[in-house]
Amino acid sequence: MYIYFMATINITDARSHLPELIEKAGSEPVFIERRGHRAAVLVSPERYEQMVEALEEVEDIAAFDAAMAEEGDNIPWVQVKADLGWA
């Protein structure tokens, strides 16, 4: 698990400090506010990929759980491979 300290900056200041914010985003998320509300977050490409992979993993687990909860007859793996021409 990662613990990040989150920087926050308003959009006006962000425009004039973008290079520094990109550098900071390499080590921590940077929230950009518009009219006092969070409007965007700047993260490193590596962290973004980690988050996408984690989300995909959670979605895969949810799909597996839903498939396992379906009612009906189970089809043996050997038969599935034969039906697909893999055996």
From TrEMBL:
SUPFAM superfamilies: YefM-like. Signal peptide: none annotated. It comes from the Bacteria. Antitoxin component of a type II toxin-antitoxin (TA) system. NCBIfam families: phd_fam. Belongs to the phD/YefM antitoxin family. This is Antitoxin. It comes from Arthrobacter liuii.
